[in-house]
Design a protein that fits this description.
Blueprint: H1 31-41, E1 52-56, H2 64-67, E2 71-74, H3 80-90, E3 95-101, H4 102-108, H5 110-118, E4 123-129, H6 164-170, E5 175-180, H7 184-196, E6 201-206, H8 218-221, H9 223-229, E7 230-232, E8 240-241, E9 247-252, E10 255-260, H10 281-288, E11 296-303, H11 309-324, H12 329-333
Parallel strand pairs: 1-2, 1-3, 3-4, 4-6, 5-6, 7-11
Antiparallel strand pairs: 5-11, 8-9, 9-10
Helix pairs in contact: 1-7, 3-11, 4-5
Amino acid sequence: MPPETASPAPVATRKDFISDQDVRWCPGCGDYAILATMQNVLPKLGIPRQNFVFVSGIGCSSRFPYYMETYGFHTIHGRAPAIATGLKVYRPDLSVWVITGDGDGLSIGGNHLIHALRRNVDLKILLFNNRIYGLTKGQYSPTSEFGKKTKSTPFGSVDYPLNPMSLALGSEATFVARTHDTDVKHMAEVFQAAGEHRGSAFVEIYQNCVIFNDNAFQAIDEKQTRDDMSLVLTSGKPLIFGKDRNKGIRLKGLEPEVVTFDPKSPPADLLIHEPHSENPTYAEFLSRMDLPRFPVPMGVFRAIRRPTYDQLVNEQVAAAIEKQGPGNLEKLWSSGDTWTVAAEGGKT
């Protein structure tokens, strides 16, 4: 008789990632599109459903784990990256996703976000940026524009906004990308690229809050203006945009500039998109491009390879065990209240 073989695991579908919880966001919220896109993308990653974990902090976006039929944690304000780091180090086989917002991730959680990125923990961090505090009813956030009038800044904010992409690049994240909630196809491509990346993957999502900050990204959301106001990044291709594909980006000294040309003969000196360079200078140029002077770049800004924090930590643990043997926590715990430290040469 031939040996018995295990039947292959069934291929997961979008339905397998939809939980039985009622989705409760405001009608018209961009979070619905992000959720549906994520449920479509995960089956394409080839990872068993039981190996996905979603970790969130506090905010409208942090309801996300309830709506995913995966493991998940709804944690405390700003601390999702820290909790996700502990989980990933202990269980490096898991695909761990962090869901956060511009308030949760960049204000109280800014420190945790920075260090998760600089350590290159193998986490996929999605930052929903609607430039407002939505859950607490419309206060200005770290990404709100200068002069923003809200309930907490009735005369206009005097804070300069934080740039999430520059922060991620400055923290040495190995994957940095941006997308927006009204372009589902583009969003799916970015999510899949992040999911396949080995290391810290940071994705900023422009997400509209219809109640407290409606039309925050109107210029790049509407089909009539999107092509002229945004720049879709494609690896190895020149930075060309515009409805007629007749505009591009080149360098003038150390400054980028927009040039207009005949689409049949684009200039040879246009910048070529290269997200795989170890030098982050080019990606920094992209992170600083914004309306009204420049189109808003959309896509993968940077994608490089480095050893991950969880990999290096577990290699250290394995090396220590091989040299000293496995530890015994119970023996250590009951070994007494005092101990002697031997000085060099064995003398105490």
